[in-house]
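Notes continue from the previous slide.

Worked example: a multi-chain complex. Inputs as given:
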Amino acid sequence: MKKLMFHGMILLAWMVSASPLAVAGDAIPIGVAGPMTGAYAAFGEQLWRGAEQAAKDINAAGGVNGKKIELFKGDDACEPKQAVAVANQLVERHGIKVVIGHFCSSSTIPASEVYADAGVMQITPGSTNPMVTERNIPTLFRTCGRDNQQGSVGADFVVNKLKAKSVAIVHDKDTYGQGLADAMRDALHRLGRKEVLYEGLTRGEKDFNALVTKFKSVNADVVYFGGLHNEAGPLIHQMKDQGLKATLVSGDGIVSQDFVIAAGGPAYAEGVHMTFGRDPRKIKEGEEVVARMRKAGYEPEGYTLYSYATMQAIAAAITATNSIDGSTLARWLHAHDVPTVMGIKGWDAKGDLKVSDYVMYRWNGQGSYEEVPQP
Amino acid sequence: MIVGMAPEIVVQQAINGLVLGATYGLIAVGYTMVYGIIGMINFAHGEIYMVSAYLTAIFIATFQFFGLAYLPALLAAVLAATVLITALYGWFVERIAYRPLRQSTRLAPLITAIGVSLILQSYVRLSQGARSQGIPSLLQGSFTLNIGPHGGMIHITHVQFFIIVIAFLSMALLTFLMLKTPMGRACRATEQDLVMASLLGIPTDRAISTVFVIGAAMAAVAGVLVSLNYGSFDFHIGFITGIKAFTAAVLGGIGSLPGAMLGGLILGLAESFFSGFVNSDYKDVFAFSLLVLVLIFRPSGLLGQPQVAKV
């Protein structure tokens, strides 16, 4: 009996010590979650490449307080249900305390509940829906802007630069897409304009000809699309096929070479406008990293450097606090600015960036995008 | 709603609907023929269509690499090669997943169908990658017509025109095959009564294989046409299109060949007109409500034969 007790005590002691031990080893486990497969895998790859490169660079420089960063990949395929499953898996099986991700707002929001319950700090490099940071989760941050800011820039451009008379707004009925379309609509109303059409299309479909003809029937001269490249591509393709002269304007959901492919080539993508943060590849602090990634044969487009910067912020917080406790890290990040490849970043009480810098880009005939010059 | 719309918009929406409906109809043929002959729903059919889209891209690249530049020849070669290989896929799927289960419960082949569909999807995703793929626009340009009192312009791209022509040609060819050839007779006999047909010396296994091959071939025609039209595709396109085509087959009367085409056209037109003149948010709701209504008043679909229990 005594012996049994003894073994029981040992077992208990082992169980109690096991969980912190697993984490307090010589590696810091960090999750990277996003659409690694599925139709939006291009964005998952951007997040993964950025985080991977940052982890490699930090580890090569001696790690964080002498510990190496170890990355765990989580694939949500941009599906809310899978996002929750992946979040649970990262937290329970891999014991991560910090996660970079997710990408789609519709995945980030449900997954954030899991992370918040587990005290995990979450920083999304790409979810721009306002709701992400509007739910008072102290351990949630983002390194990108918000769709209401994006909508304002878009509306200002459409009204003042393109001098549009009738604007049609279309979205993909998803959290991100519809949120962006709503932001655009609100911003238009603030400028005293009213959209001529506000409708949703179905994600996964390819035929939007009926909608395109409808643009024609309402004489739209600008079509604003809230959604991702897989639908934006066929949409502009069919607009051009039907001889529509309207300009397509969209947001940061089409910042990928895959948009050109989905559109059917640079000739179709040409002239499409989109809002995105000031090109992170052109920020001086990041020059060296960009050069290194290009040398390795990867063009750090879209959200790649956002993900890199996110990893740097996490590393800075862990170094300063010498802790991997989610709320300790979060408190530090709320109070301190961090130098990153995208310049110095600081966060407000909600977890949004203090400064966001949306500008308008235009896809050119060579299949790449350039900033529209400011007057 | 349509009253008061400019005539060119109405005509344009009709063209949009016809093109969409023609592709639904081509894919629906596969569902309806397989159901007609062995009474099962081949849920892997949408993925066969998806595979054919990838094959289209592969063959265009291959033939262009070997210097086939003359456009009609290139299109014909791509169409023939894609149809051939996709038909092989159809034959294999029947052979591996359905024939061994022919004598088992009705649910077993349904489950293997879903299995095959997952396997094909994952296979394409792993071998070709999850990203969208594109093909060069081979057929560019469009016909424009001026109609109506204000000379409103309508656009029919060459590809859309090509889609309608090829869709109707292949439907005509298929009808001829089924009605006028020994192969078609064997298929129809098997459809009417499998046991009796085999007692009379008709190779029923071969007839069933033929039906799968024909279904896959028609899906391949749709795959080539749709890829040319939209210029891009991914491993996931089979799902939504498959469901829509299946709906078209049920709407037209599952088991009926002309019903599949009719169902496809009605579905395409309904979607197009509803999203064009009412609201695109609810076009699927409208299409499926239409299906429900048709099934309430005609449970076996528009052109379907009511199932008579064979005693």
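Summary box: Chain B has a mean pLDDT of 90. Strands of chain B lie at 133-134, 142-147, 152-157, 232-233.
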